[in-house]
User: Fold these one by one.
Assistant:
Number 1:
Amino acid sequence: MEPTPEQSPHHAYPDHWEADVVLRDGGTARIRPITTDDAERLVSFYEQVSDESKYYRFFAPYPRLSDRDVHRFTHHDYVDRVGLAVTISGEFIGTVRYDRINDQGRPASAPADEAEVAFLVQDAHQGRGVASALLEHIAAVARERGIRRFAAEVLPANNKMIKVFRDGGYTQRRSFEDGSVHLTLDLEPTEKSLAVQRGREQRAEARSVQRLLAPGSVAVIGTGRAPGGVGRTVLRNLLASGYTGRTYAVNRAFDEGVTALDGVPAHRSLGEIGEQVDLAVIAVPARRVPEAVADCGEHGVQGLVVLSAGYAERGADGRELQRELVRQARSYGMRIIGPNAFGIINTAESVRLNASLAPESPARGRIGLFTQSGAIGIALLSGLHRRGAGLSSFISAGNRADVSGNDFLQYSFEDPDTDVALLYLESLGNPRKFTRLARRTAAVKPVVVVKGARHSGSTPPGHAVPVSRIPDATVSALMRQAGVIRVDTVTEMVDAGLLLAGQPLPAGPRVAILGNSESLGLLTYDACLAEGLRPRPPIDLTTAASPQDFRDALAEALADGTCDAVIVTAIPWVGENGEAETGDGQVLAAALHKAVAGGAAKPVAVVHVEIGGLAEALAAASSTAAPRPRTATPAADRTRAAASSSTAPAPGAPAAPRASPAPAPSTGPDAPAAPATPGTPEASPAPESATGHGPGRIPAYPAAERAVRALAEAVKYAQWRRQAAVPGKIPEFLDDTIDKPGAAALIEAQLATAPDPRGRPLTHAEARELLGRYGIAVRPTLPAPDPEAAVAAAARLGYPVALKTTAPHLRHRADLGGVRLDVADEEALRRAYGELTDLLGKPAELLPVVQAMAPRGVDTVVRASIDAAAGAVLSFGLAGAPSELLGDTAHRLVPATDRDAAELIRSIRAAPVLFGWRGSAPVDTTALEELLLRLSRLVDDHPEVVSVALEPVVVAPHGLTVLGASVRLAPPPARSDLGPRRLPNY
């Protein structure tokens, strides 16, 4: 007999199903399970649904819900019957329900794995992506409860609902039965469903930021009656920036007779305004913020910028206030920048918004800037202003309780006014998502990041985020893998941003240096070598060089096919009286601009010493050439890149395998913007910025090292872009030698025997068996508790052998004398055993083992580990104390491709040792790359494998040998990046 709702066991309320989501229009809503307390909300919701929508839901006129309906739709066991609701301001705007059914379509319990699903969305909220979000979340709930398929009956005229199912990306089957469309959806995530989910996430989150940066009206809440104060300052800056929308001053303390302030309408509350307000800037004490937020939510405000302090930066009580602030704002569908924010700026001509404490709105430019620190934001705005650089947008997020750097990346990816994204981050709330978004954004425009709080070992005040245990060096390597340009200081960020925003990407590392100072040229040459560039000998124009000489030399360098970038060095001219002349920098700048305008598209940077007006004049875009699209083709760029030998591997190491030619770019409506690539000598004579928008400004630097460092970052980024255009692959041959089901069975059996929920380490034999399922052979070891056992083990394995200790304090420490190699016979083994125990202690303490000798080679270490925040990380380095002391280890995110494996080996500083350094024999790096790929597949296929260390791995000229392996299993951490989209709850 099938269980009735009353007979089915009731499960506890699943609060982990609750989620805040961003809808298609950028507003937020909350998804949560429906409870027995929702009866009145359900009835009210149903009354606001049109008759047509009710007909589509119930296939018949159904004007109102009966008491039995209400009871049925609000009583769930959260296993076989589940209902979810989307709420705004606590009221339902959409619902979804599933009921588990058997093969005959009748109510059932597990193990039945199919459920009938039905949706209902208020007409006023249709088109906002409510049903799509509900489908993602109800599908995740169903999978958690063992349901694998959804069945739905839809009327043929209900095109909107059919489209929701069709566009979800799930594998589906469709048939027409009894006048309705019968749909069956397989709920297992597919590449298409994941791509659809992430595409919707990107558009929604980008739209939510766009609504904040381009409001049609702004209210400053907390505008003081007297000059000064935070609110009055923001209002003054709004007016001074020429904001194109409507502006209002709001303060509940205004006298009734006050109707205007600084020329804008003044009101005591939003309700008095009588018009839609899109953005509210809140500048009241923290204790009054909830009242202001409620006023905003009740009057339809779309977003908030909270300047008020007194939140998580003040400790535990403030952190709880901050969480309540986010909950309150999201309940009304609003997003927050802040609290403790510095403000936002949008320089677009159609907006001209300066809702910040910055006294002067920056010039319009093509750099987007996000910072988690108000002080750093001030410094960056000032530095960019001094250098003549403009911004497209600016967000200072303060405590970053809601809108984060990830949201800014979503916005920057599709913002046509932003060519370069600069981010100052003190914490990464979701490193997996950050690297995913950064990789996608970096494929079309540069992303430059400064990471603060790198070595503090704690979360910055005000930032309540998941703790990541991976060291900063690993974070840096993972950012590089994603194409992020990570720099150490905000000065370096500005330096790199100026070059990337104003100049083309270099086609390679070859640099021409020219100028009127031999010494400054030599300093630049040395700096280039230190940064891994390939400089040509400097061209000394002598101190008598005129601006025309500079122009001619620069034009010649740009026309030279043997260089990829040019650095111009300049010092003041020396007059006839022997005194230095600062000279007219505008004259020299004009000469350089003319040379650039008529030359090939190569990056040009200027290093100057005290030449008045030069930096400012160079920062002005050349007026000699109108903006026009590039004429260089991707094929021409690849030809140029090949001719310039732009890939620069570690000294003595061959380059990683070159990418094959890229396929023709997609031209479909959903195709991403094609990344701009370096030009060729035959390209447009007017160099454009790295992303192809107009003639470039020439960046100027006061020191050679700063210019060269910025150029070196551009070179590495350009190389990454060329390689990323053709992604790496996971070789198919691995599938034929991997036993995934067998490994899964072993893991399940081992975890079943582990009483500790934190998991357990595997024994040597268990680790060998598991790794063997993935084609990773570990050389066996035999215990040697006494000399006789050691002799018996050696006889079994065959001489020569190694005798080594396995005690934790001596493991992998050959320098302490715990290893004896090439033991040739029984006599030598007994002697070695005695020496070992005499030197280091009793056998019971040393835990000695005997192992057959491996072919000679280079000792390396291969590791994989899972970080709860960042995910699975693959690491590689040489074995031994020097590598550990120098931190010479490379890292890549899992799953790794063939290109990742090749780059991983070549990116350590000691890589030349693997490729025949100082006459030694090169080792089998192909076998090493295969080992890395196999280990990557293991931890990617089985997240229960939380730690693997292969040490040492001896890589010989032919083949390799894994001498030691340790594996730890544990229940896998939650994969937030694979679940339905949701906003974080910090």
Number 2:
Amino acid sequence: MALPAPQGRRSSTHSRLLRHGFTDPSAAGQLLDTPEFSPVREDSVLLEALGGTADPDLALLGLARLVEAIEPEAQQELLSMLVAAKPLRDRLLGVMGASEALADHLVRHPDDWRSLVTYESVDLHPTTPEFEQALAEGIWGERGEDRSRADALRVAYRRCLLGIVARDVCGTTDVAEAAAELADLATATVRAALQISYEEAPGDAAVSRLSVIAMGKCGARELNYVSDVDVIFVAEAKEGVEEAKALQAATRLASRMMRLCSDVTAEGTIWPVDANLRPEGRNGPLVRTLTSHLAYYQRWAKTWEFQALLKARPMAGDLDLGQAYVDALEPMVWQVAERENFVVDVRQMRRRVVANIPADRVERELKLGPGGLRDVEFAVQLLQLVHGRSDPTLRSASTLDALAALAAGGYVGRQDAAALDSAYRFLRALEHRIQLFRMRRTHLMPEEETDLRRLARSLGLFTEPVDTLRKEWKWHAREVRRLHEKLFYRPLLDAVAHLEPGETRLSAKAAGHRLEALGYADPVAALRHLEALASGVTRKAAIQRTLLPVLLGWFADSADPDAGLLNFRKVSDALGKTPWYLRLLRDEGAAAENLARVLSAGRLAPDLLLRAPEAVALLGAADGLKPRGRAALEQEVLAAVGRADGAEAAVAVARGVRRRELFRTSAADLIGAYGTDGNPAEKDHGHAIDAVGTAVSDLNSATLGGALRAAVREQWGDTLPTRFAVIGMGRFGGREMSYGSDADVLFVHEPREGADEHEAAKAAQAIANEMRRLLQLPSSDPPLLIDADLRPEGRSGPLVRTLASYAAYYRRWSLVWEAQALLRAEPVAGDAELGQRFVELIDPLRYPAEGLGEDAVREIRRLKARMESERLPRGADPTTHTKLGRGGLSDVEWTVQLLQMRHGWEIPGLRTTRTREALAAAHAAELIGTEDAATLDEAWVLAARVRNAVMLVRGRPGDTFPVDGREQAAVGRYLGYEEGHVGEMLDDYRRITRRARGVVEELFYEG
């Protein structure tokens, strides 16, 4: 029985172990106190070596398990060699400190530690032939005699993997060399598995030529420790053999090869062989002839399939056939950038990848998350496809080699390429070390402190390892994101700038190709704009060169990049000499992105901005895009009108305020619809449409109030001989105005006490006419058209009536449609008390006691049916007309208004001018079911959003989707559809409105 170590020695050992990086010195001390370790227990060399590993505790535990697993006579040999031979010591302990899985392998196969002893020059950088020889010895040699072929392959693979890991963790190879070795080992492994398949089915091997094409990271020789090995199979019949028979035989051989690598046996698995990159994916045949492959790629292949072929290389089997496959497809790869939907496809691929990452993993995702490995690979591949068609030097499968070639050719800035190379190597090393621990496929940063500490130390970060690792990772991820944004656009600026002698830069032709690939329809004009903005040595040009790479990316992310860049040039020309403009864009993070979104999303907002470019300041202010509210707007407008010299000048000021507020509202709407890095797109579309309707209605009310004050002051001073009010009707009264809505109004007046009624009437008529004239004067500001056709007797009746005249008319002559129109009546300007009395006058008319009679209901239905048949514009598609079409605004509004007129007298919630509020009240009162109410609301919101989108995009109102492709795409982007999904947008619109029409048929027509 061994006596316990003296307390002093234990304390001394405990301190030494702590100093050497052990986190559990007690457990480590117990392992060292075992008899097996007695010859080396006090050896400082061994402790130093353990202390230099990623996880000293794990390394010592692995060593103890290995020592226990080997024969007693071999234990002394291993420990002696560990102390005497530094290469073995560093390799073996380095592997055990970094990989629990490989320590397990060594315990199962204790003699494999000897594979780490050799240190010949060929052993430093083995390639495929060396790995093939090692695998052959392990499978068909003496070592494989007592094992099945599948188990022997796995053991031999792990033995080779030990050497790769040892070289990696000791720094003999860098991350790129380690990745290349892993790919070479995978090549040798697939060849061995295929040879086993031939051995098991010689008949199949005799009738077919089978070639395995490496794809993805294996094809590029940049494989991870644990990764699917992507392949494509191509086969041909041997001479005299039927093609169908040969393909069946090749399919059996390929399937067996895949199982040999992928199946789990007593010795575990190697990695999955994934053939899903083949034509038609899982739905296509596993093996095709070369002719069949060519036919598919010529007719059916998508952009991403050509992008995947960048990495293709013959790997195993018939290498001549594999080379013929690569040679035949290569020309198609370098023509893909000329395809019609190339830009759309590329953007969608990246967005789809990011969108599919679970929200709780995005920040930990090394490969697919923002600032991750895929960002680098994706950017490099896109630039290869764009420029590789005319420059063969870029046609490399390796990401880092391609990046170096892009820098050498001037397609990427040298400093940017160097920074990106460094970040990519760090992220790949991080990925390797994470996978290495348990040999599991993962791209997620660990969360446990222990895992992070081991990970950091494996990368050489020994001082405050966890904090240092987090900082370095975040810094590299930020660098990738920053450089990813610059990578495409910085060289475009260099192409139009004056560089230092000897500097390589993008040619005009190459710059044009890149701009085309990024979605610019007129690359010549785009380059001209860039030259005007960024050339020169002024401070302004220097700041523009800093801003433009990011702005160009945001423009390219829109439906009309050309318009975005042109508008930016116009704004910059107008404001370039003001000291605050470029400083705002440079220093206020959100301002630049907000401006890019606004300038490239359509015509309305840029037109409003270009009439008064100083409004760009709203995009950077904290509350700059929040609507100001009616009271604040009225106060500003009336104060401005009071200071103006004359009515026309006063209304010009009021219209200027309206223009600014229209810009504020439209900019907020666009930014909310598109979303930005800091603020995701608005999900509650109903809230967004209500916000626009309220804001536009409020600013139009304030504008009318200003025009009224100006008209009165011009002719009558402070007091008009009659009280005068403006009543909003239609969407104005419902506070549901769109950007292109006219202001539907009624004018009501009441002579002041003692005033002559005739003079009062003349004054009221003059005021109404003067307001209309003032608001339609030629101006750079958008006009506000006043429409008073909903007044009694329409255009045949007087423009202005007294309150008493309205009462008399409605009492004697009012028709049911007029009562229905009054459902939207609300005072918007002028004498508030008179406006309220008008509301009290019409309430019994629009909410009749005991509801509508059956005759009135029939009349409303008759009018609606007549409107549907007569008012829809000739040639208009009734399935997509937002106002009068099936399930559109009119359908929903008439259905809700009928409920208001029938039940408003008894249900207070229905007494509102707003459609959605009335619909919600009807649902709350159980007049309409939950599903039906949701269907009507969804259709109304969608139709209203389409109308707003059309105005934002085209700069003029419209009730149907645009015909022009770019305008249609811009409407789609506003509605949340990615490029290339216009058909889906129209299908969704028709589906939603068709369902709404079904509800209308049931509720309105009771059909």
